[in-house]
């Protein structure tokens, strides 16, 4: 069942947005929307290949915002991700993209296959990481948690999914998991120190916790990404929306993964950054392929990604966001913009 909420008030007015360098949404409406006949960006794609909750009915009472559905009420959860089929397909694709970025790996922590018995993937989305991990570790029991039931039902016998708000007190006993995995939880976690404290408590001595997040700002080293480009505006708007939601997207910029793990008491912490050029401009073939996948990732349900932060939080109209999205697509396909993001994986061990 879907319910349309009362019209949301924009949380930042135009003056406040301008003060932090965000172009007014009307800027994008003034851009030409005429398709460039020479624009072949699309064709480049073809050239590469509880609080654990029981299923109460409110879980299925999805909210609808501008035609997209969002999770039902659960604790204080406020997720910016739609939970409809279109977005679930984008999350499935993301599993492939993130694995390509990690050079085919699912994680970096030095896990001992013979010893790993119990694993949790916090904020699992459509659960593909948990399923792939369970295939690789057939002797481990893998739990995937999320606040919305978008996971498949036909899964390996050693996988199960639970509804759980990661910002509430975790209900698992101390020393439960050999491995705790959290991927792309920016804009979702209320307090990064607190979540790593919970991970530390529920991790077994000798077990590992790993976090994967990308930089929410698109940057360039040669100033080809100018302030007024859609690529540069991306981070400004996302970051402002995260501040207003009280769930930061600036996890990479503030190094919150490493700081949180250190503060919680993890040891042997390692940080690995993966450079991801956006689009296919990079000369290095491996990086260009990663860039193509990240471009496809951004473009897959771009409107779904933008709907909550841009429209519901920042108060843009769907039409303004649509024109912005069209310009972003253009820039992602234009090799003159040398934009990149960084994926940061941080992992650490709970001492024995
Ligand atoms: C960006 S997606 C990442 C999904 C998955 N970890 C991945 O990397 O493919 C974030 C996920 O977190 C879930 N989520 C949002 N708020 C949450 C919360 N408070 N507790 C648990 N999961 C949450 C969303 O429903 C969504 O599936």
UniProtKB/TrEMBL annotation:
Protein name: S-adenosyl-L-methionine-dependent methyltransferase
Annotated InterPro entries: SAM-dependent_MTases_sf (IPR029063)
Protein family according to the UniProt entry: Belongs to the methyltransferase superfamily. LaeA methyltransferase family.
Sections of the chain in a coiled coil: none
Organism: Neurospora crassa (strain ATCC 24698 / 74-OR23-1A / CBS 708.71 / DSM 1257 / FGSC 987)
Biased segments, Acidic residues type: 32-41
GO molecular function, one term: methyltransferase activity
CDD domains associated with the record: AdoMet_MTases
Segments of this protein annotated with the region Disordered: 23-42
Pfam families in the record: Methyltransf_23
């Amino acid at each position: 069942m879907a319910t349309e909420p009362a019209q949301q008030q924009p949380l930042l007015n135009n003056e406040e947005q301008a003060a932090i360098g965000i172009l007014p949404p009307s800027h994008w409406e003034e851009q030409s929307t005429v398709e460039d006949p020479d624009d072949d960006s699309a064709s480049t794609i073809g050239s590469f290949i509880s609080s654990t909750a029981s299923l109460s009915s409110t879980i299925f009472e999805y909210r609808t915002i501008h035609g997209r559905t969002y999770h039902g009420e659960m604790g204080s959860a406020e997720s910016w991700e739609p939970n409809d089929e279109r977005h679930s397909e984008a999350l499935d694709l993301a599993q492939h993209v993130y694995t390509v970025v990690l050079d085919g790996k699912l994680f970096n922590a030095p896990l001992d296959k013979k010893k790993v018995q119990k694993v949790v993937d916090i904020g699992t989305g459509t659960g593909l990481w948990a399923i792939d991990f369970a295939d690789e570790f057939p002797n481990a029991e893998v739990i995937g948690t999320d606040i919305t039931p978008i996971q498949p039902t036909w899964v390996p016998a050693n996988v199960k999914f639970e509804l759980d708000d990661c910002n509430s007190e975790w209900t698992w006993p101390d020393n439960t998991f050999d491995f705790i995995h959290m991927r792309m939880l920016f804009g979702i976690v209320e307090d990064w120190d607190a979540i790593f404290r919970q991970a530390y408590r529920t991790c077994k001595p000798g077990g590992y916790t790993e976090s994967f997040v990308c930089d929410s700002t698109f940057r360039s080293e040669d100033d080809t990404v100018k302030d007024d480009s859609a690529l540069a505006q991306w981070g400004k708007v996302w970051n402002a929306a995260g501040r207003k939601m009280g769930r930061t997207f600036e996890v990479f910029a503030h190094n919150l993964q490493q700081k949180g793990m250190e503060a919680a008491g993890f040891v042997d912490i390692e940080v690995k950054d993966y450079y991801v050029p956006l689009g296919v401009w990079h000369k290095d073939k491996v990086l260009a392929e990663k860039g193509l996948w990240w471009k496809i990732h951004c473009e897959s349900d771009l409107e779904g990604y933008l709907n909550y932060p841009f429209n519901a939080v920042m108060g843009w109209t769907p039409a303004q966001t649509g024109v912005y999205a069209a310009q972003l697509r253009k820039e992602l396909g234009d090799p003159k913009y040398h934009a990149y993001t960084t994926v940061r994986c941080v992992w650490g061990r709970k001492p024995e």
